Amino acid sequence: MLTPRERVLTALKHEEPDRVPLGLGASGASVTDDVYFKLKDYFGIEGDVEPFRSGHGDNIYDPRVFDCLGVDFRHVFLRSSLDFKPPVNEDGSLVNEWGVAVKKYGRFYEWVSHPLAEADLSDLDNYKWPKPYTGQRQRGLQDTVQEYYQKSDFAIASRSPSRGFFDLGIQLRGFERFMTDMVLDKKFTHKFMGKLLETIIGFYDVLLEQAGPYIHIVETQDDYGHQNSLFFSPALFREMIKPYRAELNAFIKKKAPQASIFIHTCGAVSELIEDLIDCGVDVVNPVQPLAKGMETKKLKERFGGKIVFHGGIDLQKALAGSKEDVEIEVKTRLRDLAPGGGYILSPANVVQDDVPVENIVLLFDLARKYGQYPIDIPE
Amino acid sequence: MKLLSEIGDKMIEGNVEELIDLINKAEAEGIDQKTIINDGLIAAMLSLGEKFKLNEVFIPDVLVAAAAMKEAINHLGFDNISDTGSPKGVIVIGTVRHDMHDIGKNLVALLMNSNGFHVHDLGVDVSPDKFVEAVKDYSPDILALSALLTTTLPEMSEVIKALGNAGVRKSTRVLVGGAPVTEEYADSIGADGYAPDATSAVTKSLEMIDS
């Protein structure tokens, strides 16, 4: 039997390990805080851990819960800045470090202001961008990553320290404005993307400066697709976003040459996968199987051997459905994606509050059972 | 006519300056406003919508064209395309309660409007009572409901029940859409129509009004 680390590294090389590696706790592939507490109760785990951030659906990382599920990873991450206290607006929204007001509605945090909506070129120079090098964000990181590396046999992944170019573009500028800018105001958009790149690279610099050599997967994120399509044409991506993504990936490779680069990008993104591979991405998550063009069998035929698939387990129907639905889902994704290696099984996004805990436990039990290589699951 | 199709092309490119020049030229040639709007602007928007449905063009293309269309309409002396003649129909649209997502809903509202509907957009997180009130106030031909989340999907059924309780269910047709919505779900809650994407929402609405 392989260790979790050997298992993951084998899969990353597009070879078959002893069984399919299992992921949870990644950027865009974890569980909401509510689901975390339910899992913690289910497994009878006592004692709280401090949230590593706030203002997101998933703010807690507790490997004890993931170990009960048989997850093969340990995650490391930057913490919130000690120098930054988010101002609170009258409507109760909090202003994050990027200057975007975030408000909780029901179970979700939404962006309620777009501070660069009316900005022009010179405003970009004067804007108060986050300061990655301040606030001791890397506190505890080096001890933790070394301990995981030397004293455990888990694969080590670093969570994304920042959102990506498109996500930040629509948060700061507003959805419709940013979308039309990409077509009509290319000069502004290039300068804007350049400013984002500078700041995002700062975050990765702090994250990887010392910890870089110990990390097996460096996670990044940026959402390029929705249920039915991409948000923009592949040509517009190549022109306005890809150069910046390529530069970020090159920076990560410099700081952690041994690591694989992971991107979380939801929705119908099949027509961008070739470009992602081309600009240095090694692992694509979440492989949202019900989005258009994301049929897992076809993806494996087109891109298997060239990119590692991470995710694949549908949350929109199967995981919130019956036990039978969960079983069919696990078998289907393993059959489609696992042969030949290059697959890390995980829910295809952050597991939401409508998913019963029993289904999550069942998912991981079944993945361990049916994920043994060679994969042999009758139709 | 060549000039009208050029007007459509400039609108789609988002080239407002040349679009306005061509509209002026068309008017100088004696083409009436209604023809410019229907056969130039709206016709181009309809064909763009079809390409959007087939993933041949994308959201930025639709937004750019719609913004240019608005400029053209304003240049012709109207605030809104639905003011330019008898609107194709009246729509009330909103995202259901507890759901704050509006990208899809805004796109539907924009395409509906660009195709000549009069649109009342109630925004996001709209309660069943607010939908009922809007149906009473605006007597829409179609009430369009949007939801992005599996957890807010049941709200659609609540809206339909509330319309029934208020005695106005039969006065409008209910169209539903959004990522988790399916035809089966639409049928199961007694909606009158389902649209899998923004372009289909327009064509479905036109069909529903004609039927």
Task: Describe this structure as you would to a colleague.
The complex is a heterodimer of chains A (379) and B (211). With 379 residues, chain A is an alpha/beta fold. Chain A has one domain (4-82, 119-370): TIM Barrel, CATH 3.20.20. Chain A has 14 helices and 10 strands. Chain B has 211 residues and is an alpha/beta fold. Chain B is built from 9 helices and 5 strands. Chain B has a 5-stranded parallel beta sheet, sandwiched between helices. In chain B, helix 2 (16-28) packs across helix 4. Chain A binds chain B through residues 105-108, 110, 175-176, 179-180, 182-184, 226-233, 236, 292, 316, 320, 352-354, and chain B through 14, 55, 57-61, 63-64, 67, 98, 100, 103-104, 106, 125, 149-151, 179-180, 196-197.
Number of strands of chain B: 5
Runs of chain A in which pLDDT lies below 50 for 5 or more consecutive residues are none
Please report the two chains with the greatest interface, counting residues with C-beta closer than 8 angstroms to the partner's C-beta: A-B, 27 and 23 residues
Number of strands of chain A: 10
Radius of gyration from the alpha-carbon trace of chain A, in angstroms: 20 Å
Quick synopsis:
The complex is a heterodimer of chains A (about 375) and B (about 210). By secondary structure, chain A is an alpha/beta fold.
Keywords:
heterodimer; A: 379 residues; alpha/beta; 7-stranded parallel β-sheet; 3-stranded antiparallel β-sheet; 14 helices; globular; B: 211 residues; Methyltransferase, Methionine Synthase (B12-binding Domains), Chain A, domain 1; Rossmann fold; 2 domains; 5 strands; elongated
Question: What topology does this entry show?
Answer:
The complex is a heterodimer of chains A (379) and B (211).
Chain A: H1 4-12, H2 33-42, H3 63-69, E1 73-76, E2 94-95, E3 101-105, E4 108-111, H4 121-126, H5 141-151, E5 155-158, H6 165-173, H7 175-184, H8 186-211, E6 217-221, H9 234-240, H10 242-255, E7 260-264, H11 273-278, E8 283-285, H12 296-303, E9 308-313, H13 323-337, E10 343-347, H14 357-370
Parallel strand pairs in A: 1-5, 5-6, 6-7, 7-8, 8-9, 9-10
Antiparallel strand pairs in A: 2-3, 3-4
Helix pairs in contact in A: 6-7, 8-10, 12-13, 13-14
Chain B: H1 2-13, H2 16-28, H3 33-53, H4 59-75, E1 90-95, H5 103-114, E2 118-121, H6 128-138, E3 142-146, H7 154-165, E4 173-177, H8 183-188, E5 193-194, H9 198-210
